Amino acid sequence: MPSLKRSARSLAPALDAAGFVGTWDWSVTTGQVVLDQGSAKIVAGDPALAGQIIDLDTALVRLHPDDHGWVMPKIEQMGRTCGTILAEYRVRAPNEDVRWLLDRGRVTRRPDGTVHGQGIWLDVTDLHQDDALEDLGPEHLIEMAATHCLNARELLQRSGTPMTRLLIDMLLLELGRGAAEHVQRLEGSPLH
Predict the structure, then answer these.
(1) CA-based, 20 to 30 A from 28: which of 74, 80, 134, 159?
(2) pLDDT exceeds 50 at position 1
(3) pTM listed for this prediction
Protein backbone atom coordinates (compact mmCIF):
# COMPACT_ATOMS: atom_id res chain seq x y z
CA MET A 1 0.00 0.00 0.00
CA PRO A 2 1.45 3.37 -0.99
CA SER A 3 2.37 5.74 1.78
CA LEU A 4 0.40 8.92 2.27
CA LYS A 5 3.50 10.99 1.47
CA ARG A 6 4.06 9.15 -1.83
CA SER A 7 0.34 9.49 -2.68
CA ALA A 8 0.48 13.24 -2.09
CA ARG A 9 3.53 13.53 -4.39
CA SER A 10 1.74 11.64 -7.15
CA LEU A 11 -1.34 13.84 -6.86
CA ALA A 12 0.25 16.92 -8.47
CA PRO A 13 1.18 15.17 -11.76
CA ALA A 14 -2.23 13.49 -11.84
CA LEU A 15 -4.03 16.80 -11.41
CA ASP A 16 -1.83 18.39 -14.06
CA ALA A 17 -2.57 15.55 -16.49
CA ALA A 18 -6.29 16.05 -15.88
CA GLY A 19 -6.02 19.76 -16.74
CA PHE A 20 -6.66 20.94 -13.19
CA VAL A 21 -6.68 24.75 -13.04
CA GLY A 22 -7.81 25.38 -9.48
CA THR A 23 -10.61 25.71 -6.96
CA TRP A 24 -13.29 28.22 -6.11
CA ASP A 25 -15.20 28.81 -2.89
CA TRP A 26 -18.29 31.03 -3.07
CA SER A 27 -20.40 32.38 -0.24
CA VAL A 28 -23.55 33.09 -2.20
CA THR A 29 -25.11 34.70 0.85
CA THR A 30 -22.39 37.36 1.15
CA GLY A 31 -21.29 37.41 -2.50
CA GLN A 32 -17.71 36.66 -1.49
CA VAL A 33 -15.45 34.38 -3.53
CA VAL A 34 -12.05 32.89 -2.65
CA LEU A 35 -9.87 31.38 -5.36
CA ASP A 36 -6.72 29.32 -5.09
CA GLN A 37 -3.58 30.39 -6.99
CA GLY A 38 -4.34 28.54 -10.23
CA SER A 39 -7.87 29.92 -10.42
CA ALA A 40 -6.74 33.42 -9.49
CA LYS A 41 -4.16 33.38 -12.28
CA ILE A 42 -6.29 31.94 -15.10
CA VAL A 43 -9.85 33.01 -14.26
CA ALA A 44 -9.33 36.25 -12.34
CA GLY A 45 -6.14 37.16 -14.22
CA ASP A 46 -4.11 37.96 -11.11
CA PRO A 47 -2.37 35.30 -8.98
CA ALA A 48 -2.04 37.86 -6.17
CA LEU A 49 -5.80 37.47 -5.62
CA ALA A 50 -5.31 33.88 -4.41
CA GLY A 51 -6.75 33.45 -0.94
CA GLN A 52 -8.22 36.97 -0.97
CA ILE A 53 -11.93 37.66 -0.54
CA ILE A 54 -13.21 39.09 -3.83
CA ASP A 55 -16.60 39.50 -5.51
CA LEU A 56 -17.95 37.28 -8.28
CA ASP A 57 -17.30 39.81 -11.06
CA THR A 58 -13.65 40.13 -10.02
CA ALA A 59 -13.33 36.35 -9.77
CA LEU A 60 -14.59 35.95 -13.34
CA VAL A 61 -13.02 39.04 -14.92
CA ARG A 62 -11.27 36.90 -17.61
CA LEU A 63 -14.57 35.32 -18.72
CA HIS A 64 -14.78 35.49 -22.52
CA PRO A 65 -17.11 38.33 -23.59
CA ASP A 66 -19.07 36.01 -25.90
CA ASP A 67 -19.83 33.67 -22.98
CA HIS A 68 -20.52 36.32 -20.33
CA GLY A 69 -24.18 36.73 -21.33
CA TRP A 70 -25.11 33.12 -20.54
CA VAL A 71 -22.52 32.13 -17.90
CA MET A 72 -23.29 34.85 -15.35
CA PRO A 73 -27.08 34.22 -15.36
CA LYS A 74 -26.44 30.46 -15.04
CA ILE A 75 -24.17 31.00 -12.03
CA GLU A 76 -26.63 33.43 -10.45
CA GLN A 77 -29.46 30.92 -10.99
CA MET A 78 -27.42 28.20 -9.23
CA GLY A 79 -26.94 30.61 -6.36
CA ARG A 80 -30.73 30.89 -6.04
CA THR A 81 -31.74 27.28 -6.67
CA CYS A 82 -28.68 25.37 -5.38
CA GLY A 83 -27.49 22.17 -7.01
CA THR A 84 -24.71 21.07 -9.31
CA ILE A 85 -22.83 23.54 -11.45
CA LEU A 86 -21.58 22.02 -14.67
CA ALA A 87 -20.61 24.31 -17.53
CA GLU A 88 -17.94 24.69 -20.19
CA TYR A 89 -16.99 28.19 -21.18
CA ARG A 90 -14.08 30.24 -22.39
CA VAL A 91 -11.72 32.56 -20.55
CA ARG A 92 -9.01 34.83 -21.88
CA ALA A 93 -5.77 33.71 -20.27
CA PRO A 94 -3.36 36.43 -19.10
CA ASN A 95 -1.38 36.00 -22.35
CA GLU A 96 -4.71 36.57 -24.22
CA ASP A 97 -4.97 32.92 -25.37
CA VAL A 98 -8.50 31.61 -25.22
CA ARG A 99 -8.85 28.61 -22.91
CA TRP A 100 -11.89 26.37 -22.46
CA LEU A 101 -12.71 25.55 -18.84
CA LEU A 102 -15.01 22.96 -17.36
CA ASP A 103 -16.56 24.42 -14.21
CA ARG A 104 -17.80 21.70 -11.87
CA GLY A 105 -19.11 22.30 -8.38
CA ARG A 106 -22.08 22.30 -6.06
CA VAL A 107 -24.09 25.00 -4.33
CA THR A 108 -25.91 23.98 -1.14
CA ARG A 109 -28.04 25.56 1.53
CA ARG A 110 -26.45 25.03 4.94
CA PRO A 111 -28.43 24.29 8.11
CA ASP A 112 -27.98 27.91 9.24
CA GLY A 113 -29.70 29.08 6.02
CA THR A 114 -26.60 30.41 4.28
CA VAL A 115 -25.94 29.33 0.70
CA HIS A 116 -22.44 28.19 -0.17
CA GLY A 117 -20.71 26.71 -3.21
CA GLN A 118 -17.42 25.01 -3.90
CA GLY A 119 -15.91 23.62 -7.05
CA ILE A 120 -13.07 23.28 -9.48
CA TRP A 121 -12.04 24.32 -12.96
CA LEU A 122 -10.42 21.96 -15.44
CA ASP A 123 -8.77 23.15 -18.63
CA VAL A 124 -10.46 21.24 -21.48
CA THR A 125 -9.11 23.36 -24.34
CA ASP A 126 -7.62 20.29 -26.00
CA LEU A 127 -11.11 18.81 -26.39
CA HIS A 128 -12.19 21.86 -28.39
CA GLN A 129 -9.42 21.66 -30.93
CA ASP A 130 -10.35 19.94 -34.17
CA ASP A 131 -7.11 17.96 -34.29
CA ALA A 132 -7.70 16.54 -30.82
CA LEU A 133 -11.10 15.14 -31.80
CA GLU A 134 -9.75 13.72 -35.06
CA ASP A 135 -7.09 11.79 -33.13
CA LEU A 136 -9.65 10.13 -30.89
CA GLY A 137 -11.10 6.82 -31.93
CA PRO A 138 -14.85 6.24 -32.22
CA GLU A 139 -15.03 4.57 -28.81
CA HIS A 140 -13.63 7.69 -27.14
CA LEU A 141 -15.99 10.00 -29.03
CA ILE A 142 -18.97 7.83 -28.03
CA GLU A 143 -17.74 7.85 -24.43
CA MET A 144 -17.39 11.64 -24.46
CA ALA A 145 -20.87 12.05 -25.94
CA ALA A 146 -22.32 9.67 -23.34
CA THR A 147 -20.66 11.60 -20.51
CA HIS A 148 -22.14 14.88 -21.75
CA CYS A 149 -25.55 13.23 -22.14
CA LEU A 150 -25.42 11.79 -18.62
CA ASN A 151 -24.65 15.26 -17.27
CA ALA A 152 -27.54 16.69 -19.30
CA ARG A 153 -29.82 13.92 -18.03
CA GLU A 154 -28.95 14.80 -14.43
CA LEU A 155 -29.99 18.41 -15.06
CA LEU A 156 -33.13 17.42 -16.96
CA GLN A 157 -34.25 15.11 -14.16
CA ARG A 158 -34.64 18.22 -12.01
CA SER A 159 -35.93 20.75 -14.48
CA GLY A 160 -36.75 19.20 -17.84
CA THR A 161 -40.10 18.40 -19.35
CA PRO A 162 -41.18 14.75 -19.71
CA MET A 163 -40.42 14.98 -23.43
CA THR A 164 -36.85 16.25 -22.93
CA ARG A 165 -36.24 13.50 -20.35
CA LEU A 166 -37.53 10.91 -22.80
CA LEU A 167 -35.37 12.30 -25.61
CA ILE A 168 -32.18 12.27 -23.53
CA ASP A 169 -32.92 8.69 -22.44
CA MET A 170 -33.42 7.71 -26.08
CA LEU A 171 -30.13 9.36 -27.02
CA LEU A 172 -28.32 7.53 -24.21
CA LEU A 173 -29.86 4.25 -25.39
CA GLU A 174 -28.65 4.89 -28.93
CA LEU A 175 -25.16 5.81 -27.73
CA GLY A 176 -25.07 2.56 -25.74
CA ARG A 177 -26.16 0.66 -28.82
CA GLY A 178 -23.44 2.36 -30.87
CA ALA A 179 -20.81 1.52 -28.27
CA ALA A 180 -21.92 -2.12 -28.21
CA GLU A 181 -21.78 -2.32 -32.01
CA HIS A 182 -18.28 -0.86 -31.96
CA VAL A 183 -17.15 -3.48 -29.42
CA GLN A 184 -18.80 -6.18 -31.51
CA ARG A 185 -16.85 -5.08 -34.59
CA LEU A 186 -13.60 -5.09 -32.63
CA GLU A 187 -14.19 -8.52 -31.10
CA GLY A 188 -15.87 -10.02 -34.14
CA SER A 189 -18.63 -11.60 -32.07
CA PRO A 190 -22.38 -11.11 -32.49
CA LEU A 191 -24.45 -9.26 -29.90
CA HIS A 192 -26.87 -11.37 -27.88
Answers:
(1) 159
(2) no
(3) 0.65
